[in-house]
């Protein structure tokens, strides 16, 4: 299993957000891994089983997702910066989106 996992829920529709590009980057912007959400809004494999301790970023490219349904959005890209402080822990970083808002939290 990847050290970092994520999923996206479209709160405005009450369902997972499928086919959204997600990029895992280091704090300096180097790409570690990337993928697209599946029908359940999840990326099945996003990066290695272990990451070095430090600053990371998830970049969710949601503009294309909203454009596919003709929905205008205020946030074309959502970025979430976080810190990996324990190499033994799994980090789950979910995202809730709507065309004009987003929310996140540390999942389990």
UniProtKB/TrEMBL annotation:
<feature type="binding site">
    <location>
        <position position="42"/>
    </location>
    <ligand>
        <name>substrate</name>
    </ligand>
</feature>
<comment type="function">
    <text>Catalyzes the hydrolysis of 5-hydroxyisourate (HIU) to 2-oxo-4-hydroxy-4-carboxy-5-ureidoimidazoline (OHCU).</text>
</comment>
<dbReference type="InterPro" id="IPR014306">
    <property type="entry name" value="Hydroxyisourate_hydrolase"/>
</dbReference>
<keyword id="KW-0659">Purine metabolism</keyword>
<keyword id="KW-0378">Hydrolase</keyword>
<comment type="subunit">
    <text>Homotetramer.</text>
</comment>
<comment type="similarity">
    <text>Belongs to the transthyretin family. 5-hydroxyisourate hydrolase subfamily.</text>
</comment>
<feature type="binding site">
    <location>
        <position position="7"/>
    </location>
    <ligand>
        <name>substrate</name>
    </ligand>
</feature>
<dbReference type="GO" id="GO:0006144">
    <property type="term" value="P:purine nucleobase metabolic process"/>
</dbReference>
<protein>
    <recommendedName>
        <fullName>5-hydroxyisourate hydrolase</fullName>
        <ecNumber>3.5.2.17</ecNumber>
    </recommendedName>
</protein>
<dbReference type="InterPro" id="IPR000895">
    <property type="entry name" value="Transthyretin/HIU_hydrolase"/>
</dbReference>
<dbReference type="InterPro" id="IPR023418">
    <property type="entry name" value="Thyroxine_BS"/>
</dbReference>
<feature type="binding site">
    <location>
        <position position="105"/>
    </location>
    <ligand>
        <name>substrate</name>
    </ligand>
</feature>
<feature type="domain" description="Transthyretin/hydroxyisourate hydrolase">
    <location>
        <begin position="1"/>
        <end position="107"/>
    </location>
</feature>
<dbReference type="InterPro" id="IPR023416">
    <property type="entry name" value="Transthyretin/HIU_hydrolase_d"/>
</dbReference>
<dbReference type="InterPro" id="IPR036817">
    <property type="entry name" value="Transthyretin/HIU_hydrolase_sf"/>
</dbReference>
<dbReference type="Pfam" id="PF00576">
    <property type="entry name" value="Transthyretin"/>
</dbReference>
<dbReference type="GO" id="GO:0033971">
    <property type="term" value="F:hydroxyisourate hydrolase activity"/>
</dbReference>
